[in-house]
Write a structure and sequence with these properties.
By secondary structure, this protein is an alpha/beta fold. It has helices at about 15-30, 50-65, 85-95, 115-120, 135-155; strands spanning about 1-10, 35-40, 40-45, 70-80, 100-105, 125. The relative contact order is 0.24. Bound molecules: S-adenosylmethionine.
């Protein structure tokens, strides 16, 4: 199963980018042995000056166009479900075992994800009830994906 993070906005050369690249490459290196690989992070951006719901709907279109066709979608949203790292790892392992080819994680921009996109997702996950900057959410998600593959492969990175 291939996993991909797809986000609104461009991450310039910054400490967050360094961390993100590091976790994605660790995720790919550890995940391949257990049937999970990482696609490059994809970023989308609307250049026109749209506002509010019009902007969110356009960003939703761009996100859906950027992910692999037929990918299962997990949306990142503070109104989503909070779970432990072990439960998240189990969720990823179950999807892999079910034969899912591609799994896309979608992160919104400053306005958040369009409600229709959240409804389309097979799961909506939250890193707590607080709102985090989308640049940090990418890094947090990449780390949790790396942690998940270490849990699934019995690697000692995660200590419960
Ligand atoms: C700055 S936030 C947007 C907040 C926006 N006001 C909203 O209501 O969704 C940008 C993106 O980061 C992600 N995000 C922020 N906080 C999060 C959290 N606690 N859990 C999961 N994702 C989060 C979501 O994908 C969100 O669309």
């Amino acid at each position: 199963m291939r996993v991909q993070i797809c986000a609104v906005g461009r991450l310039k050369a910054a400490p967050e980018k360094h961390l993100l690249d590091d976790y994605i490459s660790r995720l790919d290196a550890t995940g391949r042995g257990i049937g999970i690989s990482a696609l490059p992070v994809c970023e989308v951006e609307e250049k026109r000056r749209l506002q509010g719901s019009e902007l969110m709907e356009r960003e939703a279109e761009l996100l859906l166009a950027a992910i692999p066709k037929g990918a299962l979608i997990i949306a990142l949203d503070e109104r989503g479900r909070i779970e432990t790292s072990e439960a998240f790892a189990k969720r990823i392992g179950t999807l892999r075992d079910s034969g899912a080819a591609d799994l896309a994680f979608l992160i919104g921009g400053a306005n958040g994800l369009a409600p229709a996109l959240r409804e389309r997702a097979s799961h909506v996950m939250a890193f707590g009830a607080m709102t985090w900057p989308h640049m940090l959410v990418r890094v947090m998600l990449a780390e949790q994906l790396y942690r998940a593959v270490t849990i699934l492969s019995g690697h000692p990175y995660h200590r419960a």
